[in-house]
Amino acid sequence: MPERLFVCTPSKLGSYVDCPRRYRYSYVDRPTPPKGPPWAHNSLGASVHTALRNWFALPVDKRRPEALPSLLKGTWVREGYRDEVQERAAYRRALEWLESYVETLDPAVEPLGVERVVAVKTAVLAFNGRADRIDSRPGPDGPELAIVDYKTGRTGLDSDDARGSQALALYAYAAERVFRRPCRRVELHHLPSGTVAAHEHTPESLARQVSRAEDTARDIAAAERAVAEGGDPDTAFPTTPGPICTWCDFRKVCPAGAEAPAKEPWATVERVLTPTAADE
Ligand code: SF4
């Protein structure tokens, strides 16, 4: 019998690479173990992403900075903040980011896709993922595509981050096949700093990322098979404790997570809002 394709998204693969135990808690154990409280930085990121999606849903003549406050209010996610004072400060900061960001956009240029799902099959994977934005831009031999990913974290990003992102590479690989146009450029748009970190892939570098994703999928399938055949789930999906444990949703149920320092759900947002004081 041919082996079944491994159905995956970038976050599913990334979860296993970060920590096999976290993957198990998220995708294997049922019922899913209880998660910790929602993180304010996730709320902030989701609010900004949805506001930008809705910006592109506006008619071109309505894509003006004055539209942003109601777009952001309409998509605002309230969970995780310390209190209303912090939440209001985060809203104001997010609005500033959006105002600066849309100044860099030509409202008349329509992206090819906004929060667009692209899917592709390889010999091992049935991949699907939702790209923040897919642009069509003029190239030397006709239109070329670029994958755009919005970032709202505290720290800036550089071209190594864009080059190393497996998610961006998989989106590019899939978009090229879905739209039948070259898609080699991947970009991280960091709204807090207004910077763009970009990388131009080659067919070879995209193939390498796909091959790595396939290796991860094989490892996951082997671990799942071991459990299905009666193996110890804790051995098949080991913990990999490290700094990520502090931010892991399963810190409280994971034996290794108990060792990690706890952070309040709003800790990252606090640092985003007062970077200098927090760094002292
Ligand atoms: S707490 Fe750490 S070791 Fe445990 S699942 Fe989360 S990331 Fe993995």
Number of strands: 6
Radius of gyration, in Å, reads 20 Å
Overall pLDDT, averaged? 95
Order of helices and strands: EHHHHHEEEHHEEHHHH
Low-confidence stretches: none
What's the helical proportion of residues? 40-55%
- Helix count from the secondary structure assignment: 11
Bound molecules: iron/sulfur cluster
Q: Please state the structural category.
A: alpha/beta
State which percent range the strand residues make up.
15-25%
Structure characterization notes:
GO terms for molecular function: exonuclease activity. InterPro entries: PDDEXK-like_dom_sf (IPR011604), PDDEXK_AddAB-type (IPR038726). It comes from Phytohabitans kaempferiae. Keywords: ATP-binding, DNA damage, DNA repair, Exonuclease, Helicase, Hydrolase, Nuclease, Nucleotide-binding. This is RecB family exonuclease. The mean pLDDT is 95. The chain has 11 helices and 6 strands. The chain has 280 residues and is an alpha/beta fold. The termini are far apart.
Features:
alpha/beta, six-stranded mixed beta sheet, 11 helices, 6 strands, about 20% strand, binds iron/sulfur cluster
Show the helix and strand layout.
Elements lengths: L5 E3 L1 H9 L1 H9 L11 H18 L10 H8 L8 H20 L9 E9 L3 E15 L2 E10 L7 H6 L1 H14 L3 E8 L4 E6 L2 H26 L4 H4 L30 H7 L1 H5 L1
Parallel strand pairs: 1-3, 4-5
Antiparallel strand pairs: 2-3, 3-4, 5-6
Iron/sulfur cluster (SF4) binds next to helix 2.
InterPro entries: PDDEXK-like_dom_sf, PDDEXK_AddAB-type
Keywords: ATP-binding, DNA damage, DNA repair, Exonuclease, Helicase, Hydrolase, Nuclease, Nucleotide-binding
Pfam family, one: PDDEXK_1
